[in-house]
Amino acid sequence: MSFRSIEQLLRRNSKIKISQSIANGIHDQKEEQSVQALRESLLASNQLPEKFDDHHVLLRFLRMRGFNIIKAKEMFLNMLKWREDCAVDTIAKDFKFEEFDALKRCYPHGFHGVDRFGRPLYIERIGSVDLSKLMQVTSIDRYIKYHISEQEKTLSLRYPACSLAAKKHISSTTAILDVKGLGMNNFSKAAREMFIGIQKIDSNYYPETLHQLYIINAGSGFRALWKVLKAFMEARTLKKIQVAHVFFP
């Protein structure tokens, strides 16, 4: 069964249940203890919505904060507040990105099957982005809402679909970023605002959903830009990024 057909199957039947062994995976004992400690702390203060009462969800926040229970709890509660302030559940359910086709023509990006371990594979040709056209077909605010809706879709649809196909728990994405032609000249005020906004959302509210990011076709222009971009990124995220300073056909 293809990845697309699994997506369609999950869409058609919301009652599909992935077996516990696939959904939960194998838990490390020390991680299990940390997750339980965080869970009990949140429950004690009545701050754990049923939707997020999940081993892997709590584990993502713990990993991002080096298994510091206090810091992980603070990060988790900040995520809940952000979701309420930004009406994320409403975005996930009702947001319609009518300009999607126009956006794809000036910003080639999307998911393309899975990697060899079964994780969803995301590919983006950011070096080919026509930012002036992009700003004509959408706004930064609407693009960020589109990004949030895609993140929600990945959590609720893509990861369960991949877990079902791989017969193991999948909760992270492999990404390939083609930066051919990208340099400081491309990093306009609008591009900077969009990058910082998305980076903040992904790091603070969807932690540990990136498995590995491969940056390809990185030329001299990108190397200068990369020094700037790294300043906005978490150290843990940077460790997951590999930059190839060579060109591929």
TrEMBL record:
PROSITE patterns: CRAL_TRIO. This is CRAL-TRIO domain-containing protein. It holds the Pfam family CRAL_TRIO. GO terms for cellular component: Golgi membrane; plasma membrane. It is a peripheral membrane protein. It comes from Triticum turgidum subsp. durum (Durum wheat). SMART domains: CRAL_TRIO_N (SM01100), SEC14 (SM00516). It is found in: Cell membrane; Golgi apparatus membrane. The keyword Oxidoreductase does not apply.
